[in-house]
């Protein structure tokens, strides 16, 4: 018997019930006929539903096979990028640029293959949430988003992007070293033009700069960023002014009076490296599945949850080297935060169904930055951490033996407007980001020419932070982002700082004795809470706002950062605000 569609079964049943003969039959046979007719509809409806579910499930399995292959090739690209910045000899720059371009072309072919397109087309028409569940539906959602983006970009465009990023990076390294803006300017002009071309092709419904922002912050726009930054600037400017007035009137009382915590040769690089490694492991970074190396610009690369690599840099300014490790301990503090996110993504355990799939990725760069900044700003720059860490510093650096945990806490929380973004304190840091946001807007709108960037930059630094810029190397050439074509990335740092405040407050509500645990060196509860609520969630939700609502009960709130900094620095500097 041919399968009867559900709509056809309903029509047949309706006709029978309405016909005189049908009434006779129902009277004669009781409910047996009506039950048979209804059963016919149910059986055939169930069969059709099962057929649809089987078709969607099969398409999903095939889609995942192709997505995992693309993810592995992306991992190879990332290894080449890490090697280029950490290990590769400078003379190999041209060859590496061509290698990356060739690989980008191969990946592009995979991302735009006809069979992948057919699967995307089939799944686009299906109710994947109902058939597959929320997690698998999120995989399909992002696969469609990625495919649509790639299909609007030509293979030539993808290859040109990869090749230009290689040339621009090495030109930037040389230009910064030699303080030579004119040497880098043509590459930046070329990059702005190419990224405008890519934006117009891949996201034609958006403005060019909005499209670049959307690469890193899905759902975010230039207009909303302007609102967030206006609110932040209004909230932080009075705080910064009050701090600087207090320092001018009373002197800077932060830090220790002995000078033991000031930059000096006593902060031996090898000892800093050993301490950074020790702290990174204590925070939870798994060195069996990770590395800690040195590079000119600290960063974290996650090729897979089982292979995550941190780089940092060290100098006599121990705060820069040690803090950076915690963000990229502070450089290490920064980067460990990124690395814990990468190691906590789906796919780190055997037989994880979501290994190599879009749902395992970070939801946005702002969310990723929130994890680094939570460890750097909320933990490393907090009093409880220094109750734990001070004895370690005494052990590695005996010249600090007389310094108390309060001395260390005050030393890492000094406010002083400066030239370099990555060395900025947490009060002035957002001002550096707002400056870069305004610069990028002007470049993409055509209001600012590349040749005029140094003069624009120097004036903005003076107007915003009252800082004189002595050289382009310490000014507009200090960051790698534009050489990498990462326009729209800078706002993610401050969005991340806002989210970090919101996530940390939620963690404290969930773990009432959290700061006592940090003071005793027990970081496991915080790491596990972050893994459960953020790292392993990946891109399940369609926006950072949704993730924030689920985890904290609120959308992005810039005043969370203003409240945190005002409370903290009013106490540190004895301000009446």
From TrEMBL:
GO function terms (MF aspect) = metallocarboxypeptidase activity
Q: Which GO terms describe its biological process?
A: proteolysis
Please report a single Pfam family linked to this protein: Peptidase_M32
**Record-linked SUPFAM superfamilies:** Metalloproteases ('zincins'), catalytic domain (SSF55486)
Q: How is this protein named in the record?
A: Putative carboxypeptidase
Q: Which organism is it from?
A: Tribonema minus
Keywords, alphabetical: Carboxypeptidase, Hydrolase, Protease
